[in-house]
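Q: Got a minute? One more chain.
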Amino acid sequence: MEHEFPAGEEPKREVSAATQRNRERTLQMNLPYVLFLTAAAVITVFVCVNFLQLRAKNTILQEEVASLEAELDSAILDNDSEYNRVMNSVDLEYVREVAVNELGMQLATTSQIVTYTVEDSDYVRQYSEIPEE
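A: Always. Here it is, folded:
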């Protein structure tokens, strides 16, 4: 059996007790509760904006690091290339020839060569004179 309602009127539905309690609670929102929710929303927005700014700064810094690493690699390649060019331009035989013939130097004999064993270092620091044998 269908009910006919006058134009513009809708049938009233029965509302459950839980729904009624929620509606009453919503109507009872007082000023401190609204202020608390507003403060929570503002803090949340502030934290999100701050987070996004930090992410953007992190991305910029990562790009800068990548750029500096590429620049370092380029400088290392240039340095190695220049080192090899200089080393190849030196004629060691000519240097020995001038040292021996013009400057009167002599090649070291095996009795003059002193060998040192050094661990974990690229150089030897001399603190006193080497004793002559």
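A: Helices lie at 17-27, 31-89, 92-102.
Q: Perfect, thanks.
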